[in-house]
Amino acid sequence: MALWREHADPSDTELRDAVTQAWIDTEAYRLQTLGVVTTLSKGGHAGPEASMVKIFWSELDVRLHELAMRILGPRAEVADSSWAKGWQFSLSGPIYAGTNEIQRNVVAERVLGLPRK
């Protein structure tokens, strides 16, 4: 939100809507993570919910960095831009810690009860 307030044109309603959606998605991620942490703190196991959180986070991270790059425009692409570096790193998120496709299979089998392929 601070990045948008500092760098964006407030009359750009499309960008404002994208920032609002990013805030909603971030809050949903926070609540998902809180649920997993609560389960773990009570001695439970993260189970397939951890896969759901991993998928959501890795895709959200890419979207947040893309939005930051959009807000900053050409300023985001300077050589020492932490946003540009963050965006580049975010692209690896759907791959490391188990690809999102593998994580989706875990969710399909263990949460939805779908058969293995």
UniProtKB/TrEMBL annotation:
Pfam families in the cross-refs: Acyl-CoA_dh_1
Work out whether the entry's keyword set contains Membrane.
no
- The coiled-coil regions, if any, are none
Q: Which GO terms describe its molecular function?
A: oxidoreductase activity, acting on the CH-CH group of donors
Alphabetic keyword roster: Flavoprotein, Oxidoreductase
Organism whose genome encodes this protein: freshwater metagenome
Q: What is this protein called in UniProt?
A: Unannotated protein
Where would I find the Acyl-CoA dehydrogenase/oxidase C-terminal domain in this sequence? 15-112
